[in-house]
Amino acid sequence: MAKHLRTSGDYTIKTGTGAGGSNSVIFDSKTTRIKGDLVVDGTNTVVDTASLTIEDPIIILSRNNSTPSDVDSGILVNRGAANNAALYWNEGDDTFKAVTTTSDGTGTTIADTALAKIQAAEPAAASDVATKNYVDGAAGSFSLKVAGDDSTAITVASGQLLQFVGGANISTAGAEPDTITIDLGQNLTNIESISSATSNANLTLASNGTGDVVINDTLTFSAAASTPTASAVTKIYNKTAGGGGTGLFFINSNISSGTEGELISKKKATALAIALG
Fold first, then answer.
1. What mean pLDDT, rounded, does the chain reach?
2. Is the pTM of this model over 0.85?
3. How far apart are CA 159 and CA 139, in angstroms?
4. Contact, 222 vs 238, CB < 8 A?
């Protein structure tokens, strides 16, 4: 027979002695339904059922955490004898983590013992989480080709090293995170030819400060030159030998009104000295 109990005010059930009660209230029924809000003010709530269904689409954890304190929040899975598993927000690291842990859920922090694996579907959008298979596939399709001055193309595949090797007078050095430095040595050796890149352009050799340009070996003029235009500097060049007997000429607009002159050989100078008495 159904029974109804209605009161005109609050209704309190206390068990045992004391203001708060010390014994239990047990509802032994097939279904216990509470029509209205349920507020549990105790320190521990245990739901000992084989199936739990919650209609609320958004579950709030750490409800009374009103300030940004170091409180971890998430879901902990009891694994029995093995370390537990947790999927939670780590407040100290400011990130979501999937871990195994020795924590039992009674505190406010999760002590990680190891990161746990998370499986996901292959990404379809740019903001989707990438799987290892996707990353390996993308890296496997990577192909880079480089070529030197000789146009020989070299393919750098995934996992291979692209190395910059310096030749004579050139040194290379790498530095993290993304810098390759190429230096040209100050003392050039094994140089067989130096030429200007632009037609009719000057090639300038200049020392630093009051230093000289020093030639330690033979200076060879390999071809006859045309007489250059005179200017206020001395230009030296070679042509077919004339009266001076050297074939080495100079020209300067401040000397002989810019008329070219030939350096005289010792033999010619001696002959002229005798001839002139």
1. 88
2. no
3. 9
4. no
